[in-house]
Write a structure and sequence with these properties.
Layout lengths: L1 H11 L11 H29 L25 H15 L5 H26 L8 H21 L21 H4 L5 E3 L7 E3 L16 H22 L5 H20 L2 H7 L10 H19 L8 H18 L6 H4 L1 H24 L11 H7 L4 H21 L5
Antiparallel strand pairs: 1-2
Helix pairs in contact: 2-3, 2-10, 3-4, 3-10, 3-11, 4-5, 4-11, 5-7, 7-11, 7-13, 8-10, 8-11, 8-15
Length: 405
């Protein structure tokens, strides 16, 4: 909204300083500060409201130290993250941008699923919350929407030239840039652009027309996996919000350089027209996560609940897919991957040994992974800090992929 107001002021009456709103860097910085202030200032009021409504966490006795003290802590704090993200975006971003529209839809869609889950847990006193099949149905539904839009929308394009055949910027024809494609980036490889359509090359001429058969299911799988990973990571104070902020900030850098013709040409990476606008959304999202951490670090005054964790995972997945960095997720979101794998391995091994030996055995003392370290006697603050450090290292490793090929 403010973007359009100042755009009008700049063009119509040449209002002093109005032109600064055309710059993504300015609007991103503004969005970060605004979202941080909203989360920090209004977060306390939301927490007090949740406490008055007795929206408290029901804690199962898992034998973890300090666990009983968390009972009654307000949950559904993901509302703070969603509110602090969307307000700056609606004020500062170009709302007609297809990537912004997709991210707003993702936020509301996943936030609604998470809210319903938390509502059932808190008010219906059902610890299981929303049945898993309905969660998966919601995640798959979002994946189908996102995948279909990215595949069909004319505004979702990439640069037409390929590595080794770069177009000189001073002679660049904008029409050369725009091409519908399902190409993505494989990290750490020299010729690192891979088109999902190539999987169907055995079909002969016209196989590109069937690329959606591969692309859309991949989008569904990625969104489902990452949102579940974020959900599993949200088990101790500050872990999910902190690691997510690190990953999202890294994706923000990728989005900025991928949407800038000069930087993308210099770094020899895929140019994605209009994707730079996502930097405003990402900046607001990072600000919201940091502001939420003010109340979520140990000892937490509020939990994000599935309202926050499912939303966070969905947003990260959609950003990564939109900037063609989804194959980077196992590295960048290595914490989510480790948490997911720890649960899968634990459950699979337990079932296997129970069937073979008549008694289930475990790989970890407890899963997800962070609970394993709690069982080993580590304080949760130390676990969170060390996971953050690992997250930072993974983020740096991911950024190095821009030139390490």
């Amino acid at each position: 909204m403010l973007y359009y107001i100042f755009q009008y002021l700049d063009r119509a009456i040449d209002f002093p300083g109005a032109g600064v709103f055309q710059y993504i860097t300015f609007r991103s910085a503004f969005a970060f500060i605004l979202s941080l202030l909203i989360a920090a200032i209004y977060g306390k009021k939301i927490i007090n409201f949740l406490r008055k409504q007795q929206v408290g966490e029901t804690v199962r006795d898992l034998g973890l130290e300090g666990q009983s003290q968390k009972a009654g802590t307000p949950t559904m704090g993901g509302i703070i993250i969603i509110m602090a993200t969307l307000i700056p975006v609606l004020l500062l971003a170009k709302l007609e941008n297809i990537y912004i529209i997709l991210l707003v839809v993702t936020t509301l869609w996943m936030g609604t699923i998470g809210f319903i889950d938390d509502y059932i847990k808190v008010f219906k006193k059902d610890k299981q919350g929303l049945k898993g099949v309905f969660k998966v149905f919601g995640q798959v539904g979002l994946g189908l929407i996102v995948g279909s839009v990215l595949y069909l929308h004319p505004g979702v394009t990439i640069r037409k030239d390929t590595i080794g055949e770069r177009v000189k910027i001073e002679n660049l024809d904008p029409s050369v840039l725009h091409e519908k494609s399902t190409a993505t980036t494989i990290p750490f490889l020299k010729n690192n652009e891979f088109d999902y359509a190539e999987v169907l090359s055995f079909m002969g001429d016209g196989y590109q027309d069937w690329a959606w058969i591969i692309f859309i299911p991949m989008v569904v799988i990625i969104i489902t996996a990452v949102s579940n990973g974020a959900n599993l990571t949200d088990g101790i104070d500050g872990l999910a919000a902190g690691t997510s902020a690190i990953s999202v900030l890294t994706l923000g850098i990728f989005a900025f350089v991928s949407g800038n013709i000069i930087f993308s040409d210099y770094l020899n990476i895929m140019f994605i027209p209009n994707s730079g606008e996502m930097t405003i959304y990402i900046a607001a999202f990072v600000g919201a996560l940091v502001g939420f951490l003010w109340y979520n670090t140990y000892p937490a005054q509020v939990f994000m609940g599935d309202t926050g964790s499912l939303t966070i995972g969905g947003i990260i997945a959609v950003i990564a897919i939109a900037i063609r960095k989804e194959l980077m997720i196992p590295v960048l979101c290595g914490i989510f991957l480790a948490e997911n794998l720890s649960v899968m391995l634990q459950v699979s091994y337990f079932k296997y040994t129970k069937k073979k030996y008549g008694e289930g055995r475990r790989i970890f003392l407890m899963s997800p992974l962070h609970h394993h370290y709690q069982k080993k006697g580590f304080h949760e603050s130390k676990i969170v800090t060390r996971f953050w450090i690992v997250g930072i290292l993974l983020a740096i490793f991911s950024l190095v992929s821009l030139k390490l090929r």
